[in-house]
Structures are given as C-alpha cells and as structure tokens.
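Because showing beats explaining, we think one record worth quoting, sequence and backbone structure tokens together, and here it is:
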Amino acid sequence: MSERTDDIRISRAQPLITPWILQEELPLPEPEAAAIARARRDIAAVLAGDDPRLLVIAGPCSVHDPAALLDYAARFQAICEPHGDALLPVLRVYFEKPRTVIGWKGLINDPDLDDSFRINKGLHLARRVLLDVAALGLPAASEFLDTTFGQYYADLVSFGAIGARTVESQVHRELASGLSMPVGFKNGTSGKIGVAIDAIRSASHSHWFPSLTKEGTPAVLQSSGNPHCHLILRGGSDTGPNYHPEAVQAAAEALAKQGLPASVIVDCSHGNSEKDPARQAQVVSSLCDQMEQGQGAIRGVMLESHLVGGNQPMAAPAALAYGQSITDACLSLEDTAPLLQQLAAAVRRSA
C-alpha cells in the first residue's frame, strides 16, 4: 500500500459558489452600474489633480453588522452632502481582516462570528451590502486580501486598497494590475514607502496570473495594467507617523522621481493615529494646514469611523453593542462630522 502524500493536513472541504451564480442571484442594476463607473472616473480625476475635490474614504474598520453599516452610510452621506463642492465621499466597506497571528477574518470568512466559516453566506452578504450601498448612490471602497474573492463583488467597488501586510506580495500587485477601479497601496507596516512605490510601478504593467473565471474555472488571466494606482501613507512601526509636512513632501518627491503622479492619500488611522482613534483629529488638522499652505500632493484621506466610538470585544451578534467596531477602535460619527467640515473648509480655502 502506497503512503499518502496529498492533502494530508486538509480535514474538510466545502463547495464554493461561483462568481457567475452569485452575480446571477444578486445582479447589478444598470443605474447603479453607471453610478459606479462614474465614481471610478471621478476618483481617478481627484487623485490625478484634475478635480479640485478631496477624496474622503470613511467608515468602520470592518463590516460585522450590515444593518449598522447601512445606517452609518446614510448618515455619512447626509453629513457630506453640503460639502459636495469640496469633498468626494466614499464609504469604507471592508470585508476581510488580515491577522498578525489569528483572529476574526471578517464578514466573508466568518459571517456568524462563531468560527463556522460559512463563506458562501459571507459572499452573499458582502454582495448584498455593496448593492445596498450602491442603491444609496454612495461609492464604496474595499481592501482586496484574498486574491479570488474580488471576482464575486469587484464590479460593485469604486476604490480598491492593498494593505500594508500585502503590499510586498507579487500576487497582490498582479491582482491590482487587473482591477477595474483605482487602487491605493499602503506603505509597509514598517512605514517605508519604497515597497508601495514599487507596487504602484508593478501594477501599472501587464501581468499573467492564476485566478478564477466568473464561471469558477481556474484560469490564467492577463491584465492590461492599472494606470490609476496611488500611495497611501499610514505610518509604521519603524518610522512612526508619516502625515507631517516633511513626510508628505518626501513621498511626493519620491513618486515624482519614479515618473509617477505626486499625489498621496493619507490614512488618518493606524500608524498615523498610533491606534488612538481620537488622534485622527490631529492628523486632519495637520493635513488641512498643509493644504492651505499649498501642499497639492494631498489628494485624499482615510478615516476609521462608526456610529459609536471605540471598539468592543467580539461576541455573539445578539450580545454586541449596535454600531461599534469589533476590530480597530473607531471615531464616532458625531466626532467625525466636524472633521469633514474642517477638511471641506481647507479645500475651499486652498482653491
């Protein structure tokens, strides 16, 4: 009897729905498709400096309660409406969480928050949430962590992000080269921006890479390259925060040296807030001062914000406080509103 050598550490397998079937069950209506395409063009224009508005990507660290996210979305949209001349609001809709060791991996992987990993349910929920956000007329941003999940919902995303833990990954650079929307690459967890600039350059080129077709068939896809990739400054463990004037100017110069647009998005959370959500206000104040003093490289900001400030330990859904993060601590929407007004005023004064 021959010794087994294949799948010796795989204990179970479950069938996975195909992207084509999910899109057939939850189709994208034409009016929403047109709005998403328009939002992608607008975001690209803002990041290129062809649109004077500031891109503002705000929302919970991660989605664990779709109802609370949609509640936040409607309120966020209403707060931003008076600032349409100055801000381009985009809702943060993040379904996957990269973990340093272990932990909850996000709505797609574990929608019931109980380690049951009902991924087919999670994919349905993710697509349904994005459809509901699109119906509000609000563009959505999402991080692409698993390199195949995007086939299930990328048609509903207006801005994609590659995170600090995956910015050095060749497969994520290849993925970004084929995504249909503008993509932001965060600097690495250390804070160094060189890896993100390399990623932007790589993603602008054509690549061949393995993935899934919409029918769920393994295939090798060829991308045409993504000309709308940009740098996200999020601070880091070695460099500390990198939203200060010197860091923003250095990033702009490093981009220009590589022949890339000298424009950056600043993540006001993570390393730049040193994990304290209240410090996002300090980051915003600095960015407003820089814009008013003529720093044109700042084309967007990211804010972690939810209905209720702070965060809470993960528990059974019925035991959780409504509208509060179960991952990174967020700024409350009440405390976010003045920051949006401050950003809008700075954009108007810098025009």
